[in-house]
Design goal:
By secondary structure, the protein is of the alpha+beta class. About 50% of the residues lie in helices and about 20% in strands.
Length: about 200
C-alpha cells in the first residue's frame, strides 16, 4: 500500500478558469531515476484533469491502470487529489484529503484567494505520515488488531480440537460453566445438528 502523490488545487474563485496548483507532495522512491520526473508530471496532469472535471462538493475515485485517484472538490474552492495503489484504503485516502485541506485553511483561511503564493510544506509531511494507513488512521489500526485477535482465537480452538479433545467433553467437565450454560450449549448443538442440510 503506497501513496504516490498528493496535490492541492484552488479549483475556482477569483477569476480562476483553470485549477491552480497550490502544493504537491510526491513519493518517488519506488521509481527509477529517469522515470521520476515523468511520473511526477503524469500525477500532476491527472490531478489537474480530475480537479477540473469534478463538481463542487463531489468526491470520486477513478481507476487508472494499477492506481486509484481519489478526488474531492470542496465548497471552499479547494480540491485535493491522492493517487495511490489500488490496495490503499479508500476511507484513509479521503481522511488524508480532508486533513490536507483543513490544515491549509487553518493557515490561509482568511487570506485564501488574496495571495499569489501559498507556501505549504506540510503537504509532504502529511504524505509521509499517511504512507502507512494503519499508523495514520486509528480505525484501521483497531481493525487490524481485532483481525489479528480473531485469527489467534480461531487458531487456538482449532489446535485444541486437533489434539483429539472433544469440545462437548470439555464443556461437560468445565467447572467455569454453570449448569444453565452447559444445558444451553447442548440444546443449541442439538438444534444446529437437526437443521443441517446434507
Amino acid at each position: 500500500m503506497k501513496i504516490i502523490s498528493l496535490c492541492l488545487f484552488q479549483w475556482r474563485g477569483n477569476n480562476i478558469t483553470e485549477p491552480k496548483l497550490l502544493a504537491t507532495g510526491f513519493e518517488s522512491s519506488t521509481f527509477g531515476f529517469f522515470k521520476k520526473k515523468t511520473v511526477k508530471e503524469w500525477c500532476e496532469f491527472v490531478s489537474f484533469t480530475l480537479a477540473k472535471r469534478t463538481n463542487e462538493s463531489q468526491r470520486q475515485s477513478v481507476k487508472e491502470k494499477d492506481y486509484i485517484c481519489h478526488v474531492y472538490n470542496r465548497f471552499d474552492n479547494l480540491s485535493a487529489i491522492v493517487i495511490c495503489d489500488d490496495e490503499y484504503p479508500r476511507r484513509v485516502a479521503f481522511s488524508l484529503i480532508n486533513k490536507v485541506m483543513d490544515d491549509f485553511m487553518d493557515i490561509y483561511g482568511n487570506k485564501f484567494g488574496d495571495l499569489e503564493d501559498y507556501p505549504f510544506e506540510q503537504i509532504v509531511q502529511l504524505l509521509n505520515k499517511f504512507q502507512d494507513p494503519n499508523q495514520a488512521d486509528k480505525l484501521s489500526k483497531i481493525q487490524r488488531t481485532l483481525d489479528e485477535t480473531t485469527i489467534i482465537l480461531q487458531d487456538t480452538i482449532e489446535k485444541v480440537l486437533k489434539r483429539g479433545e472433544n469440545l462437548e467433553i470439555l464443556v461437560d467437565r468445565s467447572e467455569l460453566l454453570s449448569n444453565q450454560s452447559k444445558q444451553f450449549y447442548r440444546v443449541a448443538k442439538k438444534h444446529n445438528r437437526c437443521c443441517t442440510i446434507c
